[in-house]
Design goal:
The chain has helices spanning about 1-15, 15-25, 40-45, 50-55, 55-75, 85-90, 90-105, 115-120. It is mostly helical and about 130 residues long. Helix 2 (about 15-25) packs across helix 7 and helix 5 (about 55-75) runs antiparallel to helix 7. About 30% of the residues are buried.
Length: about 130
C-alpha cells in the first residue's frame, strides 16, 4: 500500500499543471506539452490563474490535492485498504483543492468559464 500511495502522490504532482488548466480554464497543459507556458499569466487575459500567479495558493492547492492520498496511506496502517484507493483519490483531491481556491479568490472560472458570474457568487476573501 505504501508504494501505491507514493506512486499516486507522484502522479498527482505530475498532473498539477493539467489539473490547473482543467479546473481554472487558464491554459495550463501537461509538463511534456509546455506546462504553464500557455497559462493566462503569460498570455492574458486577466484575471490571472490563481495557482500560477500566487505561489502560496498553488502550494496550498497541491497540498490539498495530495491530502486524500496521504490520508489513505495513514488509514492503511490500521486497516486494509485496496491498492487502487490512492489513485481513485487523485481526482477528488484536485476537485476539492480547486473548489477551495475558487471560493477563497475572485477568479471567475472553476470547471466552467464564468461560473462565478453564472452563480452570482461574490469574490472570496483573498480577492
Amino acid at each position: 500500500m505504501r508504494a501505491s500511495a507514493l506512486v499516486a502522490m507522484v502522479v498527482s504532482i505530475v498532473l498539477l499543471t493539467p489539473a490547473c488548466g482543467l479546473l481554472f480554464r487558464c491554459g495550463c497543459k501537461a509538463l511534456w506539452s509546455g506546462g504553464a507556458e500557455m497559462c493566462n499569466i503569460h498570455t492574458g487575459p486577466l484575471p490571472a490563474c490563481p495557482w500560477c500567479s500566487n505561489q502560496a495558493l498553488g502550494a496550498m492547492g497541491a497540498a490539498i490535492a495530495v491530502c486524500p492520498i496521504a490520508a489513505s496511506w495513514a488509514v492503511s496502517r490500521k486497516r486494509r485498504v485496496p491498492m487502487w484507493m490512492p489513485f481513485a483519490l487523485i481526482v477528488p483531491g484536485y476537485l476539492l483543492a480547486g473548489l477551495i481556491t475558487f471560493l477563497l479568490t475572485s477568479y471567475p472560472h472553476f470547471l466552467i468559464r464564468g461560473l462565478r458570474a453564472t452563480l452570482s457568487l461574490p469574490g472570496g476573501p483573498l480577492g
